[in-house]
Write a structure and sequence with these properties.
Layout: H1 3-7, E1 9-10, E2 16-17, H2 24-37, H3 43-56, H4 66-76
Antiparallel strand pairs: 1-2
Helix pairs in contact: 2-4, 3-4
Length: 77
């Protein structure tokens, strides 16, 4: 049984898409907004805060508005 088939897919263009892929434009936008709001923190610290928000939200960020993630990450920072 091929477990890779269960956890991945190929889009209409034939390009492999991992179910774990981030929406990088949203992630980049979120990190940029947090860096502007909290210039005293490094990018690594900001990313760690976003990961903490994900951990506190049962391991997922989907379903949360970017503004909500930003607010929660600011609280963590």
């Amino acid at each position: 049984e091929n477990s890779l088939q269960k956890t991945s897919s190929v889009n209409a263009s034939g390009i492999f898409v991992s179910p774990y892929a981030l929406n990088l434009s949203s992630f980049t936008k979120l990190i940029k907004r947090l860096q502007e709001k909290h210039p005293e923190f490094t990018r690594v610290e900001i990313v760690a805060a976003v990961h903490e928000v994900r951990r506190m939200n049962k391991g997922v960020l989907s379903g949360l508005a970017i503004s909500s993630i930003e607010e929660r990450a600011s609280d963590v920072l």
